[in-house]
Amino acid sequence: MAAGDRVVVVTGCERGLARRLLDRMNLRDVELVASRLGDARFGLRPEMHNYGAEKVRQLEEIGIVPRWQRAYSDSIADVPMLAQAEEPVLVNASEDLRARVTRARARGRNRNLVLVGAENHDCLAGHGDHALLLELLEHTTDHLARAVASSAA
Question: In terms of pTM, does the model score above 0.85?
Answer without folding.
Answer: no
